[in-house]
Write a structure and sequence with these properties.
The protein has 311 residues and is mainly alpha-helical. It has a single domain, classed as Orthogonal Bundle (MetI-like fold). The chain contains 14 helices and no strands. It is globular, with a radius of gyration of 27 Å. It starts with a helix and ends with a helix.
Amino acid sequence: MALAAGRRRGAGAGRGGAAAGPPRPGRRGVPRDALALLGVVPFLAFTVIFLLLPVGNVAVDAFRDGDGNWTLHNIRLSFEGIYRDAFVTSLKVALLTAAIGVVFGTLLAQAVLTTKRNTLLRRVITTASGVFANFGGVPLAFAFIATLGATGLVTRWLDAVGLPLESAGFSLFTFSGIVVVYIYFQVPLMVLVITPALEGLRPQWREAAEGLGASTWAYWRHVGLPVLAPSLLGSYLLLFGSSFAAYATAWALTSGTVPLVPIKIGSLLSGNVITGGENLGKALGFEMILVIAVVVVGYLLLSRRAARWLR
């Protein structure tokens, strides 16, 4: 018996030693972990070439003049006059469209989740949200011009029934028009983002609340909304960043008549406004990068907090 126990201990020690030993080499003595890391090299190279290097170039040139001398003139100028107004307008558009997207996107997502799983309505809205959230740029601007423009289809219908849009003070080529167009992709994006969080609300929580006599409003006020608060705030930041950085749609829609930071950057870099103003455009771009960086960090922190309820 002692001999058998010794054999078992020896076999166990052998297995433990094999498990605690170094990783088995792959071909020609290369560790398998090193071979697995080779798959990350293309992604790292893509990140460095198309993200880190351009960001570094923008950050450096933002503090240089046309002769390459270090200066703060570009930063000071970016907070004056039309450039300050562009920042204010961009922030207003982003804050307003993100808030509208959060409210209506959450309501739409909750309405879809209350239907039976795998129903036609649920599949259609989920698929349409994925398409509409990625529909932007010149095609989106053209679609709205053909619909709500001066000679758009809906505009002519409203004129025919005696409800002209001009009398209501609405124009597609103004601030309000940009807000309407941005909502088109903000609401579907919110549906995609908030749906997993809504699905994470456990039915047992609502059953327990109803068992204690809580109404639907009391459940959402004391249970549902507090649990969803990190997800809602994170989604708001995501929608804010999406609207704040949008360029092609606003440019194709207004041709720069509404001052927005991306449009000002495009004009400066193309030399349409000020000759040699590339560094001023990069200063505006650097400030946009800082805003988006704050948004991304806040979104990641809130996502980590919200993930606790989705486990």
